[in-house]
Amino acid sequence: MAEYDVLAVFCGPDGRYGNELGVVRDGSRMPDRTDRQAFAGRLGFSETVFVDDPERGAIDIYTPTLRLPFAGHPCVGTAWLLDVPELVVPAGVVGARLDGEFSWIEARPEWAPPRTLRQYGSAAEVDALAVPAPGEWIYAWAWEDEAAGRVRARGFPGRDDGIVEDEATGAAALLLTHELGRALNVRQGRGSQLLTAPQPDGLIEVGGRVRLGRSASTRPAGTPRPAP
User: Distances in Å between the alpha carbon of 6 and those of 37, 47, 126, 197?
Assistant: First the structure.
């Protein structure tokens, strides 16, 4: 049996919404990357994390079809769950901190997977968008209040893996913050909230609320069910 926690990351002010994240706290029980990829595909979350060393914060991140060197919402959620000062991912060392109700990470924009940042004229235009055909990863956004740094956004992964829209996307918000060069308050998906801020030395901080949804378990593929 593989046990895992389900978190909601970047929840709204009322605690609802957020992007679901699967976290396997004991990654040593499933060390093979092929098995991890298959497990992430079966869970079907936009990302699943395997914790390889909880004290060092060493983690391994997968979408249903890809292994990622870095991703925003998995790092924010896992940093909150492990309560560590940093995470170690293939891309590098991610700073982490907890500040009241928010979990924050600090990362470099060049670590983020490629995203097409597509600006629209109004939040209503973003709300009205249909899910595009599979292809490029599109982060559709518009100003809700430019002076205040408030942004309306939706994320379309463009992959053929069942995830047609991402509820909250830390890496894309990080890239948008880098491009605009200012702190942002992003409302994404149905009601998720992401906060960002540029930091010295080219780093970007991304934060949000995290809550524990549930703990669960599942059998690795090919494992027989116990006799009744």
Answer: 17, 11, 28, 27
Residue ranges making up the domain that contains 63: 2-108+210-218
Of 41-45, 81-85, 132-136, the one with minimum mean pLDDT is 132-136
To 5 degrees, how large is the angle CA 108–CA 109–CA 114?
Answer: 140
| Cβ–Cβ under 8 Å, residues 183 and 217 | no
**Size of the chain in residues:** 228
Assess whether pLDDT exceeds 90 at residue 225.
Answer: no
Place of tokens 């914790």: 51
| Number of domains comprising the chain | 2
Cβ-Cβ contacts under 8 Å for 96 (sequence gap 6 or more): 57, 75, 79, 84, 85, 86, 87, 103, 104, 105, 106
Contacts of 111 (CB under 8 A, 6+ apart): 69, 70, 89, 91, 92
Centre a 10 Å sphere on the Cβ of residue 16 and count the other Cβ atoms it contains.
Answer: 12
Is residue 99 classed exposed, middle or buried when 0-12, 13-18 and 19+ CB atoms within 10 A define those classes? Answer: exposed
| Residue type for position 168 | A
What is the predicted pLDDT for the residue at 213? 85
Do strands 204-218 and 192-198 pair parallel, antiparallel, or not at all (unpaired)? antiparallel
| Distances from the Cα of 211 to the Cα of 14, 151, 191, 214, angstroms | 11, 23, 15, 9
Asked if the model's pLDDT at residue 38 lies above 90, the reply is yes
What is the maximal distance between C-alpha atoms in the chain? 63
| Predicted local distance difference test score (pLDDT) of residue 218 | 64
Q: Residue 63 is part of a domain; what is its CATH number?
A: 3.10.310.10
